[in-house]
Amino acid sequence: MNIILLGPPGAGKGTQAQRLQSDLGMVQLSTGDMLRAAVASGTELGKKAKGLMEKGELVPDDLIVGLIKDRIAQPDCAKGFILDGFPRTEAQARALDKMLAEMAMKLDQVVEMEVDEKALTERVVGRFTCAKCGTGYHDSFKRPKVDGVCDVCGSKEFTRRKDDNAETMKTRMVAYRAQTEPLLPYYRARGVLKKVDGMAAMDEVYRQIRAVLAGA
Ligand code: ADP
Ligand code: ADP
Ligand code: ZN
Q1: Is the CB of residue 143 below 6 angstroms from any atom belonging to ligand 2?
Q2: Which of 161, 188, 195, 210 is labelled catalytic?
Q3: Which of 59, 61, 160, when mutated, tests ligand 1's pocket best, judged by the most ligand atoms within 8 Å of its CB?
Q4: Which of 15, 27, 66, 126 could cross-link to 139 by cystine, CB 3.0-4.6 Å?
Q5: 162 noted as active-site residue
Q6: Which residue is catalytic, options 50, 88, 123, 194?
Q7: Cα 203 to the chain's mean position, in Å?
Q8: Do residues 72 and 81 make contact, with C-beta atoms less than 8 angstroms apart?
Q9: How many angstroms from the chain centroid is the CA of residue 177?
Q10: Each residue of 193-216: b (16+ CB within 10 Å) or e?
């Protein structure tokens, strides 16, 4: 099964994608993570993306589409994938349709994660991640069981994203409203859009997503 998790920054896409990946073996495809890896390793793509990401603006469609196209073509994606942070514009959505058709693949569900705007900034500002295994945490909503130690891999190193601050969040929300929200009617018209309550606790959001997938 191939799905999209669609929602604003901080909605919980990465959190839910990680859980689906570990329970169901679907592959999480996060364009944000791919871009951050490109920035960290200083590739051409990384150099082009860095400044835009720090400002909270979107990276140009052609760069993102190339990135995801190469990734979807890899054999592990045949098990099913979760798109997290892609598509983010109508041009990306159309490019996705085209590449899936070319590869004889199909999009099964688009899960909209709805969260109040006020809660999003709080989520993003408190977010941190294990530097070693990438498990996501939150200062208030998901602390490691032992302070300062990753639950999954035992690492004591964590990272915080440079763009996870209240100021950049404003730009990211403007980009979301203007460029990504129009994807909701795009997918609704095709009958693949299902909404879950992103304000609920993480376990409840997960339960709702599993129910959507079970009905697919
Ligand atoms: P969030 O957790 O806010 O949803 P992401 O990790 O998905 O953020 O993305 C971080 C940044 O990477 C975005 O603000 C944007 O600059 C860039 N980015 C990620 N995915 C895309 C995409 N599909 N199209 C354009 N830019 C993207
Ligand atoms: P996205 O990938 O959509 O940007 P994340 O999954 O990284 O969002 O979640 C953003 C932050 O909010 C993380 O620190 C995460 O631990 C926390 N979070 C995720 N889901 C919930 C939830 N349902 N309730 C409270 N906090 C949450
Ligand atoms: Zn870890």
Answers
A1: no
A2: 161
A3: 59
A4: 126
A5: no
A6: 88
A7: 18
A8: yes
A9: 16
A10: bbbbebeeeeeebbebbbebbeee
Residue 94 falls in the annotated catalytic set: no
Spatial distance between the Cα atoms of 7 and 18, rounded to a whole number of angstroms = 16
Per-residue confidence (pLDDT) for residue 216, from 0 to 100: 65
Alpha helices in the chain (DSSP H): 13-24, 31-41, 44-55, 61-72, 90-102, 117-125, 166-175, 183-188, 202-214
User: In 10 A of CB 145, how many CB atoms?
Assistant: 7
Which protein residue's CA is at the shortest distance from atom 19 of ligand 2?
12
Name beta bridge partners: 195. Answer: 112
β 136-138/127-130 pair status: antiparallel
Separation of alpha carbons 45 and 29, rounded Å: 17
Indicate if 161 belongs to the active site. Answer: yes
**pLDDT tens per residue across span 2-42:** 999 999 999 999 999 999 999 999 999 999 999 999 999 99
Residue with tokens 């989520």: 123
124/160 Cα distance (integer angstroms): 10
Atom of ligand 2 nearest to the CA of 204: 23
Residue type, 77: C
pTM equals: 0.97
